[in-house]
Amino acid sequence: MSHSPDSHSLLSASSQLNLMEVDSIDDKEFDIPQVDTPPTLESILNELEDEEEPFVLEDTCILNTDNMDAHSCETSSLASSDSGDPSHLKRRKRTVDMSSTVHGCVLRHSLLKGISAQIVSAADKVDAGLPTAITVSGVIAVGTSHGLALVFGKDTNQALRLCLGTKTTGAEFGAVSALSINHDCSRLLCGFAKGQITMWDLANGKLLRTITDAHPPGTAILHVKFTDDPTIAVCNDSGGSVFELAFRRVMGMRSCDSRCLFSGSKGEVCCIEPLRSPPDFRDHPITHYSLLAMASLTKILVIGLKPSLKVWMTFPYNKSDPSSVPQLAWQFVAVQKMVNPVLAFCKGDTVHFLLVKKEESGTIHVIKQRQFQLSCDIISLSWINSRTLVLVDSHEKLHVVDRPSQEVLETLDLEQVQLVYNSRHFKSLATGGNVSQALALVGEKACYQSVSSYAGQIVYLGTKSAHIMTLRNWRERIDCLMKQEHFVEALSLAWSFHEGAAKAVVGLYGDSLKRKAVVSDKMIEILFQFAEHALKKCPEQGKIQVMEQHFQDVVPVLVDYCLLLQRADLLFNQLYSRLVENMVAKAVFLESLESYVVADRVGHLTAAIMRDLLDHYHSNGMMDSLERCIVHLDVTSLDIQQVVQVCWENQLYDAMIYVFNSGMNDYITPMEKLFAVIGPTLKEGRSLTDENVVMGNKLLVYISCCLAGRAYPLGDIPEDLVVQVKNQVFDFLIRLHSADSSEEEDVFPFIRTLLHFDTREFLNVLAMTFEDFKNDKQALEYQQRIVDILLQVMVDNADFTPSQVGGLFTFLARQLAKPDNTLFVNRKLFDQVLEFLCCPDDDSRHTERQQVLLELLQVGGVVQFNEERLLMLAEKAKFYQICEFLYEKNHQYDMIIDCYLKDPLRKWEIFNYIHNLLSMPGYSHEEKQRVKSKVLKHIRDVVTLDPSKSADLVLFHFTSEVQDIVSELQDDQLLFNFLNCLLEPREGPHSGSILPQEGDLHELLLDLMCRFAPDQLLSFLHTSQHYRLEDAIQITQKHHCNEATAYLLEMKGDVHGAFAVSLETLKETLCALTAESDSGAKDGRWDEAVRTESVLMKLKESVNDIIVFCHRSCQGLDQKQREVLWFPLLDTMMASQKQVKGLNAKHTSDVLKELTMKVLNAMSSFISLPAIIQQILQDPVYGKGKLAEIQGLILGMLDTFNYEQTLLETTTNLLNYDLHWSLAHLRAAVTRGLHPRQDCCNICLQQYKRRQDASEEIIVFSCGHLYHLQCLQQKDCVWGCASELQRQWRCYKCSAIHGGRVGPSTEPKRGRSTSLAQTHVTSARQDTGASALRKKVFTEAALDLQQEQSWDEIRCLYRGPSRLSMLSEVSHCHEKTGSLFSVQLGTESFQLKLSPPPLFEE
Hints:
It is built from 51 helices and 33 strands. It is α+β, with helices and mostly antiparallel strands. The N and C termini lie far apart (124 Å). The protein is flat, with a radius of gyration of 57 Å. This is RING-type domain-containing protein.
């Protein structure tokens, strides 16, 4: 059967590989070591299949992955690709972005209408059945469920050419389950659901062979495939086996020999794919091996059928879903300028690639390439050309993937196709379903026979239709976007074709230049259509902003692509002439040119566009944009007169300078124009406007550029003009008068103007220019001339400030200090400037003049002066920084101390200076000693400045001179501040510094602190450890600092003396309170209440302090000594209550009563209640009155007594109850009867009653085991005391189980072998009865100490903590921490608030 012309041309065109794409392949991807020894087929068949098995090469020629490049195995995520999402293209902003990638519609999806209609018609009219399989070659063959094979042509009519088979054979063989056409399209193989295979002649429709014994019966044919050899085919059945079919014809008789290639018992194969070469590669060396790829449920195998059967590679899968369908696909790919087959395979979401090539030695090497991963489960895998794959996932989404970049180019939905699945055949339902569960699970998603690829076409079979997918050529892809009016995307895609960056390109032939020319023509066509579409779609009415936005989405794109294509003529002629018709489009076009001109992408504009540009920018006030454009444009395209006029009128000085320089080589006229503007203003002494300042700065920069050989505002002056321009600028600057000068004009007006505008910057410009003067004689003459003019203009001129004059001489000093200096400056001028700067009569600008002179000296000007005279003038002028500079130069560091002390602005820096000088190693010992002497001489001034920093300085450097410093400081307040800083606690390197006579210093400080800061005394006494206690007590007593005295006496151990001082303080406070109440009663003023409240607060603090003191002191005193402390305090508090008078007497009395009760409560912990009551009753204040006066005190004490008595009784009851409960439960546990597990001894295994007439003891443990006493004694199961009554026994069996050694032990361990109770049972024989009676006598029931502890733990675990245990813990806590009450009272404001318990009536 011959090919049709259409199919032949399609075959030849699609099968050719584009060798121009070879260079874009990454060579590193294939740089992998090789293995030469392939395995045998037997080793593969005999190995165990294990899905958990890692990747093992099994002696194949596949490489070791450890040696691969890191990037060659990486998989890139494809989820981020959005090129296939149409909605994304709609959201994309229409601007030109070269980094974004547009792929357009890559696939052409066509419905085979003729074939689809005939499939449906055959099913309805002749009962051909539903379609089950499809294959494509020169023709398209479709198998049906009733065993028929329909052969259609591939021409436009898609006519039915042959109907192979009958419904009778269909009923016998079942549905067609697999189809294959050989390479010359002359034979068709049909596999059936019941296992038969038929071969048909496609030329005449004759049945050539019916094969029924090629494989085991009862299994369906899953795949049948021709190889390149028309006499060899392979098939795969539902048993997972693979067979080779060899067709023979001997003497007119056709036969078929079958050979098993892979047995399903070793692992079920569910997909096979022979390597079939296109017509152009029929002579490829690899074809001689007739390679076959097989995919089982766990691995991939590649075997060679020729010249002998041989396994070349195995590759196990990664972990994947058991229901994932293995896929295989071969394709010849150009790699490293060689074309070799590549096998793509996947199971799940990852696609792997294996490059197969034949070496010169005849060995086949399989090389793993970079894999890629999709976020979906793949059920179909096909090559559509050598760089592009088409995948279908389990959601019936089709993905077009570019293999080199691993980019998803397009995604389509195949839901409308309604793919046919091969599940019935994988489950072998036609033969009874005798397949494995794993194969049936894979078959749920299997659609192998519904997808067929051939020569750049992929055919998909649906339940009622057939569809074909092909790649669109590049023009079609662009036209698809054009039809959707996506012009920006169309241009982007076309540009990717132009640059060779597009993917899946079809139809673009020739070399690079030819391809670019073809694409350029297409892009120009798109640009014109885009412009026409934009003008047509422009809204005629509405806001101007809407129209502007419309064209802003279009015009920049047109400009960008015209410039990319280097077609400025097209942009400025045809396109601009069309856009001019719309005023908004014209405005947007002219404004969009700015960015391209500034970026130097457009350097020349036509005269018409330049004129329109000037008019538009000028009329819309876009002067800055106009200036930026002018300085980047070619001057030849400008109307110089018009541009200069516009620039001058609108102050576009940069543009004006650029036009004069570039257009007329005139570098002087711009300076004349700028000087004419700012000169008169500066001469008249008026302040400069912002515009004048900008103009002056531009003038300085322009002069700097001209003198340095650079063009303004950008670029460089032509090399042949550099020297000429420099000389012209110098000649202009040193002109004696300007061109239009008047009689009043000063000489050298231009230099004078620049000096008045910004002296420092003008001198900096000259300094940079002078750097370039080497051996140029004329330039050196200009240099000397300019310096002479500067001196002539500025010296003895009152118009210049000291800063300006100093800046000039600083500039001159720098120039004179250069080693190759050729300048001459009269030294008398420096003396004159020195006199001017150091004038003592002029107090104005003192700091400025000093700073100018200092800068002049630092740059080398000191060599121009007499140092003695300079120092004298500086001291007169109070230039202390100048003096410091000169002293340091002469190493007179001690004199610098005077400079700092005299300088009001820097005197606080003296501390850092002294510390650095004395710490750094660069100074001699004599210099440091002189500095130390100077500091000691001025120590009073230094300490007055900052006592804290002075103390730090003394600690670091003057520890041995402390006594001299103290004697030098005569002022007591100053001495106190200094010592307070010197002796305060420190952290750091000097925290442990020891000063000479440190005790005397601390006592001196204590004395001064009593005078100047008594509130700091206690803090000082707590932290300091260096004072002598007796001396300190005398000092504090001398100054009547009672609190400090009490603290010191307590430290000494004199408790009563400390108490007496504290009580005296309390009495003074009470006297003050009484005095305040008396004065308030007489005067009645309201401010007395405020003072009274203040005294009350002080009183509360005193009472609290003395109570805490008494609590602290009573711990080591007897009862009488405690009464000596507490009773005077109580007497003092009670005596003060009768003396309170005045407006606030009631409030004050209440406070005193509250404090008295507080004292009583505190006393009750140490003094008995009868003694306290007796003391109260003996008090004269209460002795003469009625009982009501002390009723409150007595009742409060009685309430406290009742509460404590009730608390004691309740606690006693709780303890008794707990003790009774514990003993009762313990007795019940010990006396409880034990139930043995068995009636025999666990050692001798005899009945516990061995003899009727013998009496022996039996021991029963709580674990249930029973023993004879003699047996336990033989096993040494006793521990504890040796006496009979105190012996403790251990269970022999439990001890043996837990690995315990049976026998005596000094420290018995807890285990099952130690019972909670051990019971001795005595068996006795009684003579009075005829029969023996068994009697149990309890002779011992005891718990050892360890058992008691364990029992307590169990009881607490089930019942919670007992009250006894809680009280025990509290008592232990008391023993460890001391008195809880005293500790709590020592805290800040702790109060134990107790209330009497509730009373219950009987």
